[in-house]
Amino acid sequence: MAILQKKICMIGDFSVGKTSLVAKFVRQTFSDKYLTTVGVKIDTKLLKLPDGNQVKFILWDIAGSDSLTTTTASYLRGAAGFLLVVDGTRLPTWNSALNLRLAVEKQIGSKPFIILLNKADLQEQWEMNEQAIEEKTKQGWKLLTTSAKNGMNVEQAFLELALLMT
Amino acid sequence: MTEFPINIAKYINSIKESDIVACLHIDEYDTLVSWEGNLVYLGISDLTINQSITSQLGFLEGMLPAIDTIVLRFVSFAEGYYTHVHIVSCDNNTYVLLFDATFEYKQQQKMQQQINDLKLLTLYKDQLLRALEEKNINIKQVHKFKNQFIIKKLQSLATACKKKFY
Q: Which residue of A has its CA nearest to B68?
């Protein structure tokens, strides 16, 4: 059986944990040190779906920004879906994610996406507005609380995106 | 592939990129016709001619056929190696040109890291100031209650004394 290949983009403001989520998902590694991404890092990972089928993810870990530039827009071509990453301890990254979603949709059309509220291991610094989250959930958006540090919902996030795309 | 088509040669000469590392020639059916250069340097293992390029190089998924020229800056396939990818269309064929961007990346990364670190520090400073302000408000409130309590106690003590001695 041919393996499906899907391009997935990691999108979000800087230092929200996009690279860490990919590292955890692909290599099961985590580092506390923040190393900013410039351009895009490409990784692949084979994922087994509950129905037994396999999907090969081509992961595009795009440099963090609060808006879409011409350079970053070119990385989105051919994406089948995207993960919108928010740093749960920095409220402005939530607004960035909302703006980025609109910009991405303008660029590649409506594609499946999931919002990841990352850094759940830092609950004491949590800044998310529960009402805003509830509002988006009511609108049918899929949101997951994740932690690249302890692995919480990381595999689940990619799996759920795969299911949204197939 | 020993020679580039004249349009591709002109394109390479027209852009101000550093050395070209590798070039792939892909036909209109996404089949790799030929390639040359040092792909290993970019973290890409050998490619097989006359086979689908997207199954060999996942990052081209969704990128082909290229109608307009696509430029992807600072693409990393392997840790430590960075390339500018130019996807150029010519006579129903596509040429993928890979230019070395490792040195440029290191400079850009250093600069971006400093910018992002500074942004984070400013944000954390603001968060700390906000927390300090909240604590100050709490302390003032506690002082107010404490003073009210002392006044009440003194008043009741004074009343008790008056009753006892007069």
A: A74
- CB-CB neighbors (< 8 A) of A63 in chain B: 74, 112
| B78 membership: H or E segment, kind and range | strand B70-78
Whether pLDDT at A9 is above 70: yes
d(CA B4, nearest CA chain A) in Å: 25
| Alpha carbon separation from B111 to A18, A108, B115 (Å, rounded) | 20, 30, 6
CATH number of the structural domain spanning residue B81:
3.30.450.20
| Band of residue A156 on the pLDDT scale cut at 50, 70, 90 | very high
Positions in chain B whose pLDDT score sits under 50: none
- ipTM of the modeled complex: 0.90
d(CA B71, CA B12): 13
Strands (E), chain A: 4-12, 40-48, 54-62, 81-87, 113-118, 143-145
Q: Which CATH code for domain A4-165?
A: 3.40.50.300
Domain that holds residue B89: 6-100
Pull the structure tokens for residue B28.
């209109």
Residue partners of B46: CB distance under 8 A and separation at least 6? B39, B40
Length of chain A in terms of residues written: 166
